[in-house]
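Hey all, sorry for the wall of text incoming. These are the two entities for the joint prediction.
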Amino acid sequence: MERGRGNTFTVIGLGVLLVITIIVSFQLGRYPIPAKEVLGISLSRIYPIEQFWTDRMEMVLLNIRLPRIILACLVGGCLSAAGTAYQGVFQNPMAAPDILGASAGAAFGAALAILNYGSSFTITVSAFSFSLLTVSLVYFISKRVKGKSILGLILSGIVVGSLFSAATSFIKLVADPTDQLPAITYWLMGSLAGAKSGDIKFAIIPMTIGLVPLLLLRWRMNVLTMGDDEARTMGINANQIRFIVIICSTLTTAASVSVSGMIGWVGLVIPHVARKVVGNNYNHLMPASILCGAIFLLLVDNVSRNLLTTEIPLGILTAFIGAPFFIYLITRRGEDF
Amino acid sequence: MSIDVSNLSFSYGENQVLDQVSFTAQDNQLLSVLGPNGVGKTTLFRCILGLLKGYKGQILVDEIDIEGLGIAEMAKLIAYIPQFHYPSFNYSVFDMVLMGTSVHVSAISTPGKKQKRHVEAALKRLGIYHLKDRGFTKISGGERQLVLLARALVQQAKVLVMDEPTSNLDFGNQIRVLMEIKSLAREGYTIIQSTHNPDQAFMFSDKVLAMKDGEVLAWGRPADIFTEELIYNLYGMEVKMESLYYDQARVSIPKGIVEKDSIYRFCS
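and here's what came out:
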């Protein structure tokens, strides 16, 4: 099983790459902190070292950069995990985390909270709640659709999603154009600029509850890609696995979107990048996809906060950076495996 | 292992698809199901595989009524070899076959060393070990059929249900796949396949089930039931049936070909 072992090394390699990216990300910013100081401040948290850095450095590193870096990794990893899982259980390479309306619901929740002058925490909670609500609605409608359950889910997702998008547009129409409308628009473009440790505390619980089963059930997802009937004759209850995956992916997506805003692209394309790197076997694909998503969003966020003096919204950058890279990946020569 | 179907009826709403179908297949037997398109073969298979509920009658596998069985219990009794269709995602031959072991590992774990040894053994058994790292969609149709067969073998069920295993294969691959199926039956498997080729059904099967309009037209040893009349009743085609090589084969030749121009051919 040389291929399998090779892929294990690839996944470990991606893990190392993520650590390197994190260390480099700590040094980058409008207030540069050299590597030595980054290491010193980090170590001082677990081992007492004499301070050779400024207090300002420590403040920037721990209160601004650390939460932002953690959040970028979490959101990137969660979105691509959800996308990877959905592609498998819907037997559809075009599936993305928002296929069941999770993002549309979150956008509506956030817009509604902004319209009512909610605090940033209220906005997060409202986005998260409406995201869960939307997907539950989609699920219950799909149960009443006759015929194939996958088609029912996807159709309900499209319909309910567009309903919530229309509602968001309506809120934008009635929102105060001086402060509320820009806030909503900016939220919809996605950003980690306001990342605080409170956001991490809020998001980490649903993210963990979602990610752990997605990782544990990853072999089963392979079998589900064969189709429901085939999976069933191999002893796998496709509907049951899909139900669990939908709950878990919805939790990770809702948690991600509610703290970061709408970040498209990651959940659709990073799974395919991971597929190109380690193949389609979910054993390696799921961890590889999470790591690739974390690395990608961290890199994009670094560009977002360093390229211009004003922050560039993530939703714009993910497409600008991701699209050329993905075109290179799908057009390059090599075995189409 | 045996499969015993008695008085099986199934209807989609008003539309009766299966009507009082009864047959049995013992271990070491290859049973071929013959019949024109849309005759209910697929419905029959879906009932046997536990994919369709709400049928009337009884299906016993190894004297166990499958109606009350769970999905995992079913998978340990019966394995299914589907017709080839492009999967949503391409897998290596090895991973493809490894999926067949899923019922033997817990939901939250992945197949381990033991399952991988079974996969290697099955690949070697069918002579496709050298393909293990190739992509499933990149190999030939005959090889794909053998991969799906290997996937059924590692599932360790003793009844195999095959949906037209030789369709879309060239002549050589058809015979190669049928030879493998036949030798598996000799090793103790009970195999049910559907086919559109009466000549091959005669050559390879131990039992033949001929179906028309959801009913059993004939059931028994091929030597007992294969007549010109049966082919006419099944397919509406008048044929001349010729027994060859001490009745090892019976070949059906459309009457139009052997009669119309025969004098002309003889003269020229």
